[in-house]
Amino acid sequence: MGEVSTAGSGAGSGVGARVRRKEDDRLLRGRGRFVGDIALVGMKELAFVRSPVAHATITGIEIPEEHRGAVFTWADLAAGGVKPIRAVSGLPGFKVSEQPALADGKVRFVGEPVAVCVAATRAEAEDIAASVFVDYAELPVNSDMLEAVTPGAPKVHDHWPDNVFLETNVGGNIAEIAATAPVKVSRTIRTARQCMVPLEGKGVVAHWDRHVEQLVLTTSTQMPHIVRAGLSECLDLDQGLIRVVAPDVGGGFGWKGLLQPEEIVAAWIAMRLDRPVRWTEDRREHLVAAANAREHHYEITAYADARGRLLGIEADAWVDAGAYSVYPFSACLEAAQVGSILPGPYDFAHYRCRTFSVCTNKPPIVPYRGVARTGVCFAMEQMIDAVADAVGREPWQVRLENLVPPEKMPFDNVTRKHFDSGDYPESVRRAVAAIELEGWRARQKAGEPDGRLIGVGFATYCEQSAHGTAVYHGWGIPMVPGHEQAQARITPDGGLELRVGVQSHGQSMETTFAQVAHEVLGIPLEKIKLVHGDTGLTPYSTGTWGSRSMVMAGGAVATACRTLAERLRKIGAHLMQAGPDGAVLEGGSVKAGAAAVTIREIAHTWYRAPQLLPADVDRGGLEVTAGYKPGSDHGTFSYATHAVAVAVDPEIGQVEILDYVVVEDAGTMVNPMVVDGQIYGGVAQGVGTALYERMPYDAEGQPLASTFADYLIPGFTEVPHVRIIHMLTPSPYTEFGVKGIGEGGAIAPPAAICNAINDALKPLGVIVTNAPMTPEVILSAIAGKRGAA
Amino acid sequence: MSAHAKTISLTVNGTRVEASVPPRQHLGDFLRERELLTGTHLGCEHGVCGACTILIDGEPARSCITFAVACDGRSVTTVEGLDDDPVAAELREAFSTEHGLQCGFCTPGMLVAARDVVLRRPDADNPAIRTAMSGNLCRCTGYVGIVNAIRRVIDARNTNAG
Amino acid sequence: MKAVDFDYAQPATLDAALELLSREDVMVRPVAGSQSLGPMLNLRLAQPELLVDITRIAELRTIRREGDRLVIGACVTHARLEDGDYPDVTRGVLPSVAAVIAYRAVRNRGTIGGSLAHADPAADWVNVLTALGADVVIAGTGGRRSVPMTDFILGVFETALQPGEIVAEIHVPALSDRARWGYYKVCRKTGEFSHATGAVLIDPARGVQRCVAGATSGKPVVIDGPALFAGGCTEAAMAAHLAGSPAADDPIALRTHTVALKRAIAQVMS
Predict the structure, then answer these.
(1) Which end of chain B is more exposed for a tag (fewer CB within 10 A), N or C?
(2) How near does any CA of chain C get to the CA of A36, in Å?
(3) pLDDT tens-digit profile of A555-609?
(4) For the 2Fe-2S ferredoxin-type domain, which residue ranges apply (chain B) (predicted)?
């Protein structure tokens, strides 16, 4: 059970210290080791034949004679006993999809792997792929989720009655409020389908290790243990025969948090050919076959009183879940989460939300940084501004009117989410002050010399993170987090090795977990080594997702180190011939009065001079595996208010961000520099969601972007120099009071920027409600008004 | 191996290299697969993301859309070749201090581009740094740490020069 | 994402290059900096059998003043034009435009001739050289011919180049001391392809009053004469000039092109 303390003065190198990262030097010298950097003797390269059509029956696959033996299809895998991916949810009514690693007679989205080609180089493998002829008998396509749920829509999975993975209904009893509320505002709101675009694509190197008789899959993943579990199910291979290793991982954001068909194929080919094989996802493959995040549609109504006090929220929400259910998160996590988190950080009593996870001919949806929260926040925060507009108050005032006040913490909201701590209204007040709202209002009134329109927008959210058993067992998906494990081992020279099953893909864990261990044991950071991302070397973990690693694995590291500390203290006391009660572990030494013995000396004793140990020494020695869960496993709740000032050019529809402030509360920060980095990076992705990123599809389900020239991610000049203000309310439930923070930055920007744009467009009498808010969207809104007038 | 393989000789990080290359092999693949210089990363292979940026005859270039065969007689420098470069050393220090990298995948290209900005644009203010660096994409940092790092190096050099 | 297997030659002389380019037994393409062709090769959108690299041909890398013109070799890089180590006859147009082409790492390799031969309507040189009234000297085995920019760019990725021909030189007329210049690109990101480009040149001494609307769905739209410079010229008048052109595919495109042109003109008038 977590002890609560608020350690961390910012000095030193323990919890709270802004220390430089241990991982930096190798990465700055080009000495990182990413999957694509790994070459094994005799290694072959893979390239996939991918479907060029969104929905079709495969009537034939012709492999040129000279390439027989170098091309494999589902028929080969199935004959070899490979099973399709089944990511089932236990929620009632969930319809199961089966996703074969290579198409089994039918393709359901553009980019779906149909065959795999093996050659000495990737270029040659692509040559072979280009020579394979696949005959497709095209079928009608579901390219839009709202059309896919209409009667008579073509079915993605023939044996289903419709195209809905799952429908959920939350709340109810809103009819009376709907009939009597003084204020009623409704909106249609939509977010686009996006790609997550880690700079490193996915990648896999697979080989069969003859010595240990294991399949070794080195893969660019956030969750090696879950990939192993999934591989075991699909390959029908005992987990003990599989080792999954994640090397340096070049960003993930969710895209590397799943079992991929390509991983199964690579594993199978490596075993079949008894040769190492490598597949690296190229950018076109990523943009086309992995356009898999964020596509929400809302029909939402807010009811309020004349002051803007929310009386109720009513919504129907659709999420385009694509063609298959992904392992382990399933096709319904995103939409079902919408139902449970749409109320946001607000305190109101009446709520009804119906959600649909819709099956379409697009790539399967995968939880992207913030998961459903980015869409939910986009919808809910627009409604707050709409209510404010309706009652003639400033949007920040209406937020204050409705946010859960600090005196009600901890607070269970209308969907029984347990908000743990914090002062939500204060985050708004600080954001209003920091963005200097009055100044912008004055400038707005004066008008800009260049004709641009100034707008200011706010968005507030709270974010459940580090989800525990209580949250996940309800989903009934292939993965439920329980006690997180960490192993801590004092080395014979007095250093420390930590082993955790989570996997860093930019989060700085080699540094921050070392800081946690240092906080407890006092061992210097340079003598602490993190081992992670390897099922062969680390305890089981569901991996890195849901802003959980510091809360869960950090908590486990602290727990393991505390046990080690106690053992060290007892041995140290014995070596000093002091009573155990008077000895303390401090600054890397056990001290009793004026005497001291270093951890190095104690380690030496345990490993090299055990004859000197006390008779009753703990037989576990200087190695501990400990499990950890926070005091509440409903997850931690970090929160933030984002404030943004924009200038909208009404002639060309472009938006410039003039200032951006984040006021956030992540509880205790283990390394403030790293926390800031997560927020900056999250906001940048949120700016992409708000203004740039959209994978468009035509009616035939063809993706209309396939390069960075047509799928725009924000660069240096598109992302503002964000200012961050921290509030520090320790979580009452976690080690050191930390809260999950990795995703938060990406949640609020689309909402805040949308509200700012609408504030700017107010004089023109138009609003935008769809992300991304491209020049085309803004100009269309303006032109529509002009046309209607 | 391609029937069209050509023999090229070039200098890679100060060492003379002679190699037979298929003309279709881009410089990034040549460096990574043949020279095992895997610090040069491939993020898009169509010249937009900047992760593969290296120096050809001292000038930044995209190794993914430059073919190795076109580099006969040239001098190529990768991030591994900047170990002893004084500007790169200052940048490495500043990137670490300012948290200008997270996953580190874009970092080698960032360093090569940033080095060029420091040398070519010693007068750059922050907006100018951002514009000059706009050919390199990062998905992790939100760019703030990178801008601060380059700012720090430029300021330090200007102070020392002054 | 790897190119198809192709053969490659790097001739040292123009004659040798033209000889190779005239081969009819293989699909042959010239390449200079490969900053546009490189991506197309990697994406297999271009699948040549022989690539003829013309960047080692010394005469194509020179810049020289010839009377009232600046003669720029096809293989001169954008970066060199940006850095300005030549007698600029354009009063800063060339370096300032070069500086906003894509990114420095691309400008270091990409060439002015390659950009013209590629003929992307959004490319800076396609529109700027049209506004400047430049001529393109085309070389083939049959000799050389000079084509004005307005006749060189024929459409989207379409030029007057015949098979076997390459761009050899660009001739840019010198501007007079009183020439004024405006340039405005609508890009969503720095270095991104333009969605609407306005390029404007007024050079009274030479009787030039020219507006170009570029980054259209076709060749640049050229409006010569005083029509758009009159004091009372309105946005509606500009839109009327663009109506029916490749700058007016839909109302939003027309609006954006009109604004780009208006802003370029405003730079000249200010």
Answers:
(1) C
(2) 14
(3) 999 999 999 999 999 999 999 999 888 899 999 999 999 999 999 999 999 999 9
(4) 6-82
The neighbour count for residue C238, using CB atoms within 10 Å, is: 24
Q: Does C100 touch chain A (CB under 8 A)?
A: no
Please tell me the distance in Å from A716's CA to the nearest CA on chain C.
Answer: 9
Count CB pairs under 8 A between chains B and C: 96
The tokens describing A20, both together, are 């430089």
A369-469+632-788, which class in CATH? alpha beta
C106, B47: Cβ pair inside 8 Å? Answer: yes
The residue ranges of every structural domain in chain A are 24-32+483-628, 35-139+202-249+256-289, 369-469+632-788
Of C51, C53, C104, the CB nearest to B60: C104
A612-667: pLDDT as tens digits: 999 999 999 999 999 999 998 888 999 999 999 999 999 999 999 999 999 999 99
A51-102, pLDDT tens digit by residue? 999 999 999 999 999 999 999 999 999 999 999 999 999 999 999 999 999 9
pLDDT in tens, C83-96: 999 999 999 999 99
| A644: its two tokens | 């943004």
Distance in angstroms (rounded) separating the CA atoms of residues B12 and B55? 10
Average pLDDT of span C119-139: 98
Supply the ipTM of this predicted assembly.
0.98
Chain C residue with CA closest to A128: the answer is C4
Q: How confident is the model at residue A789 (pLDDT cuts 50, 70, 90)?
A: very low
Return the beta strands (E) in C4-62 as ranges. 7-9, 28-31, 50-53
Smallest CA–CA distance, residue B48 to chain C, in Å, is 9
CB contact under 8 A, A684 and B78: no
For chain C, list the domains and their CATH numbers: 7-53 (3.30.43.10), 58-173 (3.30.465.10), 180-269 (3.30.390.50)
One DSSP character per residue, C119-141 reads: T-TT-HHHHHHHHHT-EEEEEET
The reply to whether A35-139+202-249+256-289 shares the fold of A24-32+483-628 is: no
Model confidence band, residue A10 (pLDDT cutoffs 50, 70, 90):
low
CATH topology of domain A24-32+483-628: Aldehyde Oxidoreductase; domain 4 (3.30.365)
Q: How confident is the model at residue A440 (pLDDT cuts 50, 70, 90)?
A: very high
Token readout for A124 is 């040659």
Contact A618, A725 (CB under 8 A): no
What is the distance between the alpha carbons of residues A755 and A771, in angstroms, rounded to a whole number?
Answer: 12
Q: Give the DSSP per-residue string, B1-56.
A: --TT-EEEEEEETTEEEEEEE-TT-BHHHIIIIIS--TTS--S-SSSSS-TTEEEE
Give which of C108, C111, C118 to mutate to test B binding, by max B Cβ within 10 Å: C108
> Mean pLDDT across chain A, nearest whole number?
96
Residue A184 above 70 pLDDT? yes
Nearest to A190 by CA among A781, A768, A783: A768
Residues of A in Cβ contact (< 8 Å) with B46: 283, 707-709
Query: Mapping DSSP to helix (H, G, I), strand (E, B) and coil, where does residue C258 land?
Result: helix
CB < 8 Å to C267, chain A: none
| B92 inside 8 A of chain A by CB | yes
Query: Mean pLDDT across the stretch A245-261?
Result: 97
Contact B135 C5 (CB under 8 A): no
- pLDDT > 90 fraction of chain B, expressed in percent and rounded: 96
The domains found in chain B, sorted by start residue, are 6-81 (3.10.20.30), 84-161 (1.10.150.120)
Q: Is the pLDDT of residue A476 over 90?
A: no
Query: Choosing among B27, B65, B121, B129, which should be mutated to test the C contact, i.e. which has the most C CBs within 10 A?
Result: B65
Enter the tokens of residue C42. 């990697």
Architecture of domain A35-139+202-249+256-289: Alpha-Beta Complex (3.90)
